[in-house]
Amino acid sequence: MLGKGAAGILGHSYALIADAIESGTDVVSSGFVWLGLRTAARDPDEDHPYGHGKAEPLAAIAVSFFLLVAAVYIAWHSLSFIRTPHALPAPFTLFVLGGVILVKETLFRYVDRVGKTMDSGAVKADAWHQRSDVITSGAAFIGIGIALWGGKGYESADDWAALVASAVILFNAYHIFRPAFGEIMDEAPDGDWPQQIKQLARAVPGVASTEKCHVRKMGLGYFVDLHLVVDGELTVRQGHAIAHAVKAAIIEQKPAVYDVLVHVEPN
Predict the structure, then answer these.
(1) Digit-coded pLDDT (tens) for 122-161
(2) Topology of the domain comprising 2-184
(3) Edge to edge, what strands does the sheet with 257-266 contain?
(4) pTM score > 0.85 for this model?
């Protein structure tokens, strides 16, 4: 952030300054992600019997908010600079941006891989924050290149690039906010989770069939509500044992599942 900001000021490039602002939100939002993950990883307690997992999507929403603020700030100042005559950007700013793009794309790929491994919306959101930095830097690179190639009269190309970058950042903010909000609202997760859970349950001896299966994500884990159908002539103790066997089988095959609530019904 400091390097890009200094290069932008010394090199007369608002696109690079805008890029530094976006990197500043990276620092803040990554801090929120870190705090959110630390909170989400805490064990359940008396006040939070279902754990603290909601802190993780809340962190992702905080990231989207910082992206929104950055996008609006950059767009506002870009429009102001477009209307104001100023000097051409310095050629050395292109080298700064080239290095930034390389570093940030590497960070995006690493953080995104970790986020997918953990199935963490907040970490994946933070990865996309890194990717938005790549996009803003790329737009700045193109804008500065056009300004330097065109010469006098093309000074605003740099500012137009910052404006385009703000639109991309705004899109990324929505891309991050939507799944995090869905998780807060206990939206069903993507994929065929209910079908997979039912298949695992039906493979347990004593299970005649399955009915309702609801899955919701909370932080880094999933909670399952499942209805089983068993022989109505079984004792309560036998039905209870089958329910426990189903829960154990699901958690063994799906380690991301934190808990399974099983309701047993007679056929």
Answers:
(1) 787 778 777 777 877 887 788 878 878 877 777 677 778 7
(2) Alpha-lytic protease prodomain-like (1.20.1510)
(3) 207-218, 221-230, 257-266
(4) no
